[in-house]
Structure formats: structure tokens, C-alpha cells
Write a structure and sequence with these properties.
By secondary structure, the protein is α+β, with helices and mostly antiparallel strands. It has helices at 24-31, 36-47, 64-76, 174-186, 194-201, 215-224, 246-254, 294-301, 356-373, 379-389, 402-411, 422-431, 444-450, and strands spanning 9-15, 52-58, 80-91, 104-115, 122-130, 140-141, 146-152, 155-161, 228-233, 260-265, 278-288, 309-310, 315-322, 326-332, 341-348, 394-401, 435-442, 452-453, 455-459, 472-477, 480-485, 488-493, 500-501. The mean pLDDT is 93.
């Protein structure tokens, strides 16, 4: 059993309301070692309006995972004596009232490890899941959310979020916790233990002690779980130069609804000759700034070379977990420079022959050709053509599955409320593979303010980029649908003649 399903022994129930005078700072100073990360999590709970706290102790007899973790610690360090684990659960309901399903806001597993050679225990957040405070209504887009069931002493509850974890620096480090967050988001089981990760890369704390994980280790783990991935590695000592800005690749990965791992080198060490340290963090989403100046100013004032606006230009920050500081933090776009960047691994739901960045560039050429050589009539197709020819299109690229896209088509309505006719949906359904690249075309005003688009083009992800025209599966634009048929595009009129909503995962 893991820490979520294990039964616990109630230690206390706290009234955490402002009216009761509860102070996060005082409570954590007195009970939880003035822990910095726990303060962050309590602050998130306060934003979510928590009013009560359930504290339970979990023992090894009730949790197989705890025994497993402690066995590993004893192998790693003979001075290990034991541990104390508390599960803290946050609720919106007042103390003394029974919580409803919606009252559960999340939980924290706080672990103290005791060693005979040090006076004070070492502490860390073994795991935590809380609801993200900011969501789509606040321009935060965190797609790899999943539900976790927690079996507390007052009932079983579910919370939807992204698993956060903190290293203990003995049996697992930052790379392990970044991997755990990413894998928990995509594996059917929703989690994986550090023992499993270490076994996969040959870390037994005897013949191979933990000194960090490298690309070979990451790829062994991904391969074991049958996961496809895209990587970028930048090592000055190997004279590797990235062909693209890694942040565009990162955005292309997370926009497809999956997390990524970002590795970077810390600032220059203070001691001469010392090896610079490195850190890895999971990237789980991004924020959106609909009023940003950058996209149009870059092209108009500073000679931006692209003939369209990548939707990434409206990205304000990446949403990350950092095991040193806490969950749901924002990393400003362009803050982490290429000089410090070392490694990027993005999980992909399926294998692709080319990246999102490459798909987007190819799709622009397709949109431009359609604008110049096809016509559906109607004011919105004319607007699309005008924006394409003037290099004003906004393009957004993601890897989508057949069922997701068909569901999107069925819900679409143009600005006058017209749906796409069922016959057109049926025709495109027969052409679709299980998954493919979808590149949406919009205008700056439509994309940023209304979250709407002219339409999209679908590309075959399984053929090499050199296949050219054969990559096109279909295109849909105001009043027009083009379908690949016998090496040509068959064009027909459709009832959706205006702009429509952007694709979303939920």
C-alpha cells in the first residue's frame, strides 16, 4: 500500500480558519521544522480557502511503501534509525462538520528520517497533491492533471492535481522526483516508486550508490515503460549547438498535454576547480498573457524572421514543480538562458517522425498555399487568406488523438452558431489515423482575446518530413474542407463559415 491508501492514526484536527486565528507560519514553526516547502503548500491551501486540517501518523505496519523506503535508507546509510511520517489533509469545511467530496483540497506526506550520527532528523515532503489554485480561468494551463484517491480516517476523498515530491538526497535526488512527477502523469497506475526507478538503472546503494541520473538512465526508464520521448541535450564540452531555441521545443511538448523534464546547470561554483552542480525540474504547464507586446513588436520592430506568429509568443511563464521550493511555481519565459540549459526530455503519447516546431513550419507553407490557390468565398475565408499572405497568422501546434479531435469537431460552432455538418465529420473520420499533428491557424486578436481560430490542418506524424504533400491528412477553414484523396486534395464546402473555438483537452 502507498501513503494515500494506507490507514493512519489521527493525531489532531485543526481549525485553520482566519477567524480562529490560525497562523500557517506559527503552526509550521512549532510542529514541522519551519519547513520552507511546507509553508508554500500551506499557502496554496490558504488560497484554496482551507478551514480545517487533519493530521494522521502512518506507520510501516500499515504501509508497505514506507517499509521499502526505510529498507533502502538502511542500506544506503548504516546510521539510519527509523522515521516518522505524517499525512496532512486539507479541507474547505469547518472543523467538526463532515466534509463533502468537493471539500477535499489535497494532502502532504511529511517524512522525518532519524540517524544516529546527527542530532536532528532530516526532513522532506515525500509527496503532495493539491488542486492548482490558478486554472484556465486565470490563464494557467496545466493539462497533465489526474485524480488521486486518499483514504483518510474520516473517509476516502479524491483530489485532482499534479504529483509533487522532494528529494531526500540519499536514496533519490532531483532527477528521481522529476521523473516521478512526469511518470505519475502518464502511467496508468498514476505513480512509480523510487525503488523501481533505482532498480531499472542499477542503483542498489552498494555496488552503485546514487550520484545523480544521466541521459542513459532516463532513457532506460522511459524504454521500460514503453514511453516515447523527444530530447535536446546541450553540453558545451561536447561542442553541441542546438538547432532551435529549446524553449520552443519545450512549449511544443507541453502544449500536447504531456509534461517534460528540464535540466540546467547552476551558476559558477565559488570554489576554483569545482564541478558546477545541476538540477532537474518537471515542467507541467504554462501561463498565457493575452496582452503581451512581444509577438507583433518582434516582427514589426526587430526583424522577427518567422512569417507567422508562433502561439508560444503569448506564453508568459512555464508552470513547474521544484523540489527545493514547492509545487505550481512559475518560471519566466527566457529566464533560463541557453548557456545554463543542459537537458530536455519530453514525453510523447506516440512516436513522431518530426517535432512540433517542424510541423508548424510545414503547416504554414500549406496554409499559405491554400490562401493563394483556393477559395471558399465568405468574409472569414477572405480574412484568413489576407492574414496568411501578410504573415499575420498565429499558429498553434499539438499532437492529438482521433477521438479527441472528433469530439472537438462535434462541439464546434462558428460565431453565428453554425455547426459542422455530420456528413463532413464522417468523411474526415475515415481518413484519420489514431493520432496526428494538428496545427491551428488564428489571428492575433482572435487567438489572444477570444481563444478562437480560422481552422486547422492535420499532418501525418508517422511519415518523414521529406514526404512533403503526402503529410497532409486534411484541412478545415471557414467554409472549406480539404481532404487527402488519391494523392490530391478534394475540396468541398462546409457549413462552418466563421471562426470557431480553439482546441482544449477538457
Amino acid at each position: 500500500m502507498d501513503f494515500r491508501e494506507s490507514s493512519g492514526r489521527v493525531l489532531s484536527q485543526e481549525d485553520t480558519s482566519v477567524e480562529a486565528g490560525f497562523s500557517n507560519f506559527i503552526y509550521i514553526d512549532r510542529n514541522y521544522d519551519s519547513n520552507l516547502v511546507l509553508r508554500r503548500i500551506f499557502s496554496l491551501a490558504r488560497k484554496l480557502q482551507f478551514r480545517s486540517l487533519l493530521v494522521e501518523q502512518i506507520d510501516g505496519a500499515d504501509c508497505k511503501l514506507l517499509d521499502e523506503e526505510n529498507e533502502q535508507l538502511a542500506v544506503r546509510k548504516s546510521a539510519f534509525k527509523g522515521s516518522i511520517v505524517h499525512r496532512l489533509s486539507f479541507f474547505k469545511n469547518a472543523k467538526g462538520t463532515h466534509p463533502n467530496a468537493d471539500d477535499f483540497l489535497g494532502y502532504v506526506i511529511y517524512k522525518r528520517d532519524f540517524f544516529s550520527d546527527v542530532a536532528s532528523p532530516t526532513v522532506h515532503i515525500f509527496e503532495s497533491v493539491t488542486r492548482p489554485f490558478r486554472q484556465k480561468a486565470q490563464n494557467n494551463f496545466i493539462e497533465p492533471l489526474r485524480k488521486y484517491r486518499v483514504n483518510t480516517c474520516i473517509g476516502a476523498f479524491e483530489v485532482e492535481g499534479v504529483l509533487y515530491a522532494q528529494q531526500n538526497a540519499l536514496t533519490f535526488v532531483c532527477a528521481h522526483v522529476a521523473l516521478r512527477t512526469v511518470l505519475a502523469s502518464v502511467l496508468p497506475a498514476g505513480d512509480v516508486s523510487y525503488r523501481v526507478l533505482n532498480d531499472l538503472v542499477g542503483v542498489d546503494h552498494k555496488t552503485r550508490q546514487l550520484g545523480g541520473l544521466g541521459p542513459v538512465d532516463f532513457e532506460k526508464i522511459f524504454s521500460h515503460f514503453g514511453l516515447h520521448f523527444q530530447k535536446s541535450i546541450h553540453e558545451p564540452s561536447q561542442n553541441l549547438i542546438l538547432p532551435t531555441d529549446y524553449q520552443r521545443d519545450l512549449y511544443g511538448l507541453i502544449e500536447s498535454g504531456v509534461p517534460a523534464i528540464l535540466g540546467f546547470e547552476l551558476g559558477s561554483p565559488q570554489t576554483a576547480g569545482a564541478v558546477p552542480q545541476r538540477h532537474a525540474i518537471p515542467v507541467i504547464g504554462h501561463t498565457f498573457n493575452e496582452d503581451t507586446w512581444l509577438p507583433q513588436a518582434d516582427q514589426a520592430y526587430f526583424g522577427g524572421r518567422l512569417a507567422y506568429y508562433p502561439s508560444e509568443n503569448w506564453l508568459s511563464t512555464f508552470v513547474i514543480h521544484d523540489d527545493n521550493f514547492g509545487p505550481y511555481l512559475c518560471l519566466p519565459r527566457h529566464f533560463l538562458k541557453k548557456d545554463n540549459f543542459r537537458l530536455l526530455y519530453g514525453i510523447k503519447k506516440q512516436h513522431t517522425e518530426f517535432s512540433a516546431v517542424q510541423a508548424e513550419a510545414f503547416a504554414f507553407d500549406c496554409f499559405l498555399a491554400i490562401a493563394k490557390h483556393m477559395s471558399a468565398g465568405g468574409e472569414w475565408f477572405v480574412r484568413f487568406s489576407s492574414f496568411a499572405i501578410r504573415n499575420w497568422l498565429v499558429l498553434r501546434t499539438m499532437l492529438v488523438e482521433k477521438a479527441q479531435y472528433l469530439g472537438h469537431l462535434r462541439l464546434l460552432r462558428d460565431w453565428e452558431g453554425n455547426p459542422l455538418q455530420q456528413s463532413a465529420i464522417s468523411e474526415i473520420e475515415t481518413l484519420l489515423p489514431d493520432s496526428f499533428w494538428m496545427i491551428e491557424a488564428s489571428a492575433p486578436e482572435l487567438f489572444a482575446s477570444s481563444r478562437r481560430k480560422f481552422g486547422e490542418i492535420l499532418l501525418n506524424k508517422d511519415k518523414p518530413l521529406s514526404s512533403g504533400f503526402e503529410l497532409i491528412i486534411a484541412a478545415r477553414l471557414p467554409g472549406l474542407m480539404a481532404l487527402a484523396e488519391s494523392g490530391k486534395l478534394r475540396v468541398e464546402k462546409i457549413s462552418l463559415v466563421g471562426h470557431s473555438s480553439l482546441f482544449t483537452y477538457s
